[in-house]
Amino acid sequence: xxxxxxxxxxxxxxxxxxxxxxxxxxxxxxxxxxxxxxxxxxxxxxxxxxxxxxxxxxxxxxxxxxxxxxxxxxxxxxxxxxxxxxxxxxxxxxxxxxxxxxxxxxxxxxxxxxxxxxxxxxxxxxxxxxxxxxxxxxxxxxxxxxxxxxxxxxxxxxxxxxxxxxxxxxxxxxxxxxxxxxxxxxxxxxxxxxxxxxxxxxxxxxxxxxxxxxxxxxxxxxxxxxxxxxxxxxxxxxxxxxxxxxxxxxxxxxxxxxxxxxxxxxxx
Length: 268
Known about the structure:
4-stranded antiparallel beta sheet; two-stranded antiparallel sheet; 12 helices; 61% helix
């Protein structure tokens, strides 16, 4: 199921800022990188005539992001995860930046999660006074609830499958299965692509940079690869295994019968 998204723009006249956001179907929220930098004051302001121009100090923005494990070169059309927004807020120490962060954290983001939209006073007045708007919102709400119900049914089914696959399995078996899932029906030349896909999903979910962490790691014996780091340093093989089961769902469905046979043999 594709993680559909909705773009919205919010304004704060007191702070003189506009913020573009994306809210995804899974409930996560992204904040525009350029608007974040401007809100935190990481920009250069120039006046040409009566117009004011702001240019983002991307080097500063990207350096701070890298400190928190986000080794990505952000640009004006990118959207940063909500978790990174809060971490970057710790680097912004001016009063305007604090007000900006409080506005998003206390007013905008919680309201998006509660209503699915940022309800300004103007919007609320329109809803209360315009029957067409009420009907439209009611229809949208009904469609949204039906879609959520459908998604919840699919999620419950998938979770039941995942739970059935992970119960009473040792860490060694989970690691072995991850390797089996990634290599299942894939040509050797495609192994690295499937591993990279799995690691990308892991990094996105837990907001980290494995390569950077491994480079900074000095545990002995030396870490051989990413799965070795996830196992020995992070103790997160179960989480990686769960992602693998969801990511390669069709392959897991075929492998499941083989695994069940092995379990039955052990029981017998």
